Amino acid sequence: MHHPQITPKFTPEITPSVEELQAQERRLVFPRFTHDDAWALGLLLVELARERQAPLAIDIHRAGQQLFHAALPGSTPDNDAWVSRKRRVVERYGASSYLVGARFRAKGTTFEESSRLDPDRYAAHGGSFPINVENVGIIGAVTVSGLPQLQDHRFVVEALEQFLQG
Description:
Belongs to the UPF0303 family. By secondary structure, the chain is of the alpha+beta class.
């Protein structure tokens, strides 16, 4: 029986190392990030999610303003709550939500045990990635929620790679 592919073209069993995650962030930097860029990136994320029948909530924030949001079939209000919690981790730590969680795991602990942050407001689970602009720094985040956390992370990375190559 054939099932539609709902995840990016990666081997899900392989957990990326902290070094690999940091390399993604060094590589995925924007020359600029405008309202039009947010719209175009958001549409790309929606298109990829629809192709894979992925039940995602998609969010793009810049400087505290929501520039794009979409809720695809199968997503729920709970996904929006996860989006907010993951985005707050990017805003606080200046790194992807998955990388922040991986750094805690690499130290033999968890974000929930050791960050001292309210888990109802912060979630170091994959799916939120910083919008880093050359010569400016991190100005926002691209976030998805609806798949297992590593798939959420990889989905955003794949979309950013496509967008930045375009």
